[in-house]
Amino acid sequence: MKLEGSCHCGGVKFQLESAHPYPYMRCYCSICRKTAGGGGYAINLGGDHRTLKVTGRKNIAVYRARMLDEDTGKRTRSSGRRHFCKRCGSALWLWDPQWPDLVHPHASAIDTGLPVPPERTHIMLGSKASWVEVNAKRRDRTFDEYPKESIAKWHRRLGLEDRKKR
Ligand SMILES: [Zn+2]
Q1: Tally of CB atoms within 10 A around 66
Q2: Quick one: what percent of the chain has pLDDT higher than 90?
Q3: Dist. CA 99 → ligand 1 center (Å)
Q4: Ligand 1 centroid vs 85 CA: distance in angstroms?
Q5: Between the N and C ends of the chain, which has fewer C-beta atoms within 10 Å?
Q6: Distance, CA 24 to ligand 1 centroid (Å)?
């Protein structure tokens, strides 16, 4: 499925191919919440980084989160590159050089109509803010940390993978 996205001010527009476009995974971690999740969580999609086309690159800034390991007290930087518009602040996508073929656009930045997921996965609930209510429905799955099931595997399990464009 071809996805088109943009930031709020229009300074950045992008498009990509996605075999995994269902916005099913809600991440409640502090990074997602603070950078992209006004409602307490953010939703990333799975896309093919090789197909990513961007206009307005000069308006993009990249954030690499600093993280504190509570056991060792060590601070590290996330390998994930969170791309956002430096004019309006819209969160756009995450790209991580550990998985260079993938790109994870925020569903909130996508203008193409996305399919409604038949079930949802709620992740990183161990980092959830106290005021955030998890509206998990009957078939939803919940995890305190990151689940083993990848975005691609979720689509495969539910028979929702878009193979035509691969
Ligand atoms: Zn913008």
Answers
A1: 10
A2: 84
A3: 26
A4: 5
A5: C
A6: 25
Quick: pLDDT tens for 37-78.
888 999 999 999 999 999 999 999 999 998 888 888 899 999
- Ligand 1 (single-atom ion) residues, CB below 5 Å: 7, 9, 11, 85, 87-88
The alpha-carbon radius of gyration of the chain (Å, integer) is 16
What string of H, E and C letters represents the secondary structure of the chain? CEEEEECCCCCCEEEEECCECCCCEEECCHHHHHHHCCCCCEEECEEEHHHCEEECHHHEEEECCEEECCCCCCEEECCCEEEEECCCCCEEEEECCCCCCEEEEEHHHECCCCCCCCCCEEECHHHCCCCCCCCCCCCCEECCCCCCCCHHHHHHHCCCCCCCCC
Q: Is the pLDDT of residue 164 over 80?
A: no
Distance 40 CA to ligand 1 centre (A): 22
pTM: 0.89
